Every structure is written in structure tokens, then in C-alpha cells.
Amino acid sequence: MAHFVQTYQVLGIAGALVLTLLLPLAIGTVTRFFKLATTPLETHPQRFPNVTFRGLELVKGAQLAKTLLHLLRAIYTFALVLITYAYFSIVFSFFDQTRGITKLLLQFVFQIIGSFWALFVAYLPNLFSILMIVFVSYHALKIIRLLLTAISEGKLLFKGFHKDWAEPTYSIVRFLTILFVLVMVFPLLPGFDSPAFKGISVFLGVLLSLGSTGAIANVIAGIVLIYMRSFEVGDRIETNQIMGDVIEKTLLVTRLKTINNEEVTIPNSAILANPTINYTNLSSKGDGLVLHTNVTIGYDTPWRQVHQLLQDAAAQTDLILDRPEPQVYQTALDDFYVRYELRAYTKHPHKMAQIYSDLHQHIQDQFAAAHVEIMSPHYRANRQGPITIPS
After folding, report:
1. For the chain, how big is the Rg over CA atoms in Å?
2. Residues 6 or more apart from 268 whose CB is under 8 A from it?
3. Residue 221 in contact with residue 231, Cβ under 8 Å?
4. Which of 8, 25, 153, 382 places its Cα 20 to 30 Å from the Cα of 284?
5. Percent helix, strand, coil in the chain (nearest 5)?
């Protein structure tokens, strides 16, 4: 009897050694099959054909390849766990001292599988509802995206709906759709009725309501600005006493790049609450953008001469239009001088600073050449010394 037990133990040890040697081989074989199956998915996902239905693209080939890759990784992980469990179960069954552990492992695994299966079967109706909600919402967004893309490209026209509204409209619709899906899916999630889940939901709701008041105001202002069409990216605008080119326009903020190469971020609610001047829009319509500047000249200088000098200065300035002609207005008769305003037209709003600088230089040159003094300072008596006209 002792000899039989000893022989049985020797066979058990031998079997355990053989299984230990076969374990790396089994894991290596599964790993090689996994690599063979996943290599095409990782290196060439674009080769997979798109899933279409009557010309409508339902799923892209790259997305399908990514989904298959995640599925194969899950199967690979499950296979490794199964091999490891089978190894320990068989090895433990070779010896009397550990045979009971094998039975406990089997009972534990079957209990977990049974409980999981029961929960899975009970959850199938909710799972089906979630999948249907996500499926319908996803493809509804794809159809809306196709329509709005056609509108933005000019292939589809709707009266009163501008092309530049297509992209922001899709963003808004997508946000509302995702919000709708979350509202519909949350009650169907496992454990939604648990006190912990309800506590977290209340905490997040209070946190969002207290901390997002300003953000929501900016988002609403951003939506209003989009459909007001006050400005677009690339326009030269002035708002909140800041002039610059629009470099980014989001639902929360608008970013301007000033002529001093400064990037200024302005909340949309602040833009909506203040007047906004769009110089680019003005320059593209009608006669162009009006540039205006003022000079004050004494009463001893004939006004016709002043008009001519200002018009000559405008004619010498680059990027100022010849048609319509620059105009001069006498805007005030002050105590010591007449106030003249020169108005000229341009189609280059992004170069306003340079045009103004050149115009002021030419005004100074024209008045100096005509020996006409610009009388901005007050004076009460004629000076005996030299006047302020440069030589």
C-alpha cells in the first residue's frame, strides 16, 4: 500500500512537471495566434471596408478594425486566465493534500459564472434599450452631419439658413443629443437606484449648478453671437475698447490678436453686453471702410486751402481709394480755431494703423509746405519769434 501511494505521488510530481513545461508552450501558442490576428488590425486599419447601407456610410472601416482589436484583446486575456486556472486545477488534483482546493476552485468559478449569467440575463432588456438608444442617436447624428456638410459646401440650400451656421449648429445638436442620450441611459445603468449612485448624482448636480453659472452665460452668449453673425474668424473688430483680428471663436470665449501682437481672451458674455465694430464687414460692403482724422487750423487760413491740403495728403497715402473721393468737413467753429475732419475710404481694414500713420505724416508735410500752422494749442497773442512750422 505504501508502495502504491509512493508511486502515485511520483506520477503526480511527474505530471505536474510535464504541465509546468507545457504551460509556457500553451501561452506562447495563444500569444502567437493573437499577434497574427491583431497585426493587420494595428498596422493597416484603413484597409477594412466601410459598412454602408444604400450608399449611407454606417461604420468606418478603421472604427470596425479598432472594435475587433479590443474584442480580440479581451478574448486573449480570457484565454490566458483560463489556461492558468486549468493548470492549477489539474496540478492540484494530482495530490491528495490539494485535491480539495481543486473542488473549491471549481465551485467558486461555477458560482461566479452562474451569478454573472443570472445578472446578465436579467439585465438584457436594459442593455438592449441602451444599445438601441445609442445606435439610433449615433446614426441620426451622422445623417444630420451629412445634411449640414452639404449646406456648408453649398450643395444644399435652405432659405434663411447661412452656410457659416452649419458647423456650430452641428456642434449644438451633437451636444444636445449626447445630453439626451445620457439622460435616457442613466436610469438603465446597473446600480442606478443604489443610495451611493444617487448621492454621487446629487453631489455632481449641486457642483455643476454652483460652479457653472458664468460658463453657461458665456455658452448662451456664444450661441447668440454665432447666429447674430457679428463677426467671423479673421475679421478685424473692436469690442470692449480692444481692437484686433479674431483668431478663435468658441462657445465660451473669443480670442483677438491685437496690432501689438497680443492675444486677448474675451468672454462671450462681455462681447454680447458691449457694442462690437466689425471693420472687415464694413470694408467689404459699399464704398469701403471710412478712415477719419481731425485737425484744427486758425481762422486766418482760408478754409478752401485747408480742404485742398487735406485732400492732397489723402491722395498721397497708399491704400486709400481714389473713388469715392476723400471728403473734408468743418465739424466745429471753436473759440480759437476751426475743426476740420478728413474722411477717406479704404478696403484694407487689417492695415488701419499703418494707413493712419502714413496719412498723418502726409498731412504734416502738406501743411508745412504751405506754411500753414496746425493750431491745436491755444494762444492769446501773436508770437514774435519763429513759428512751429519745421523747415
Report:
1. 40
2. 218, 219, 221, 222, 225, 251, 252, 253, 254
3. no
4. 153
5. 60, 15, 25
Provide CB contacts within 8 A for 297, sequence distance 6+: 306, 337, 338, 340, 372, 373, 374, 375
Q: One-letter amino acid identity for 246?
A: V
Report pLDDT for 1: 46
**Cα 82 to Cα 19, 94, 162, 323, distances in angstroms:** 14, 19, 59, 85
Where does 153-212 have alpha helices with state H? 166-185, 195-211
Dist. CA 215–CA 27, nearest whole Å: 53
Enter the C-alpha cell of residue 386.
519763429
Q: What angle do CA 22, 23, 24 make, to 5 degrees?
A: 95
242: left (phi over 0), alpha (psi -120 to 50) or beta: beta
* Class of residue 42 by CB neighbours under 10 A (exposed 0-12, middle 13-18, buried 19+): exposed
> Which domains are delineated in the chain?
2-144 (no CATH), 226-282 (2.30.30.60), 286-369 (3.30.70.100)
Closest CA to 196 of 185, 204, 207, 188: 204
Whole-model pTM? 0.56
pLDDT at site 179: 83
Q: Average pLDDT per run of 10 along the chain, which is 391 residues long?
A: 53 74 83 83 72 60 78 86 79 68 70 78 82 88 84 75 78 85 81 67 64 73 82 88 90 89 91 89 81 90 93 93 92 89 92 93 93 71 63 62
pLDDT value of residue 138: 87
Q: What is the pLDDT of residue 300?
A: 84
Q: In the prediction, which pLDDT does 59 show? A: 64
DSSP one-letter code for 158: B
Q: Name the nearest CA neighbour of 12 among 98, 101, 95.
A: 95
Other CB atoms within 10 Å distance of the CB of residue 309:
24
Amino acid at 375: M
Ramachandran region, residue 326 (left: φ > 0; alpha: ψ -120 to 50; beta: rest) = beta
277 CB neighbour count, 10 Å cutoff: 13
CA-CA distance, 198 to 203, in Å (whole number)? 9
Calpha distance 58→262 (Å, rounded):
45
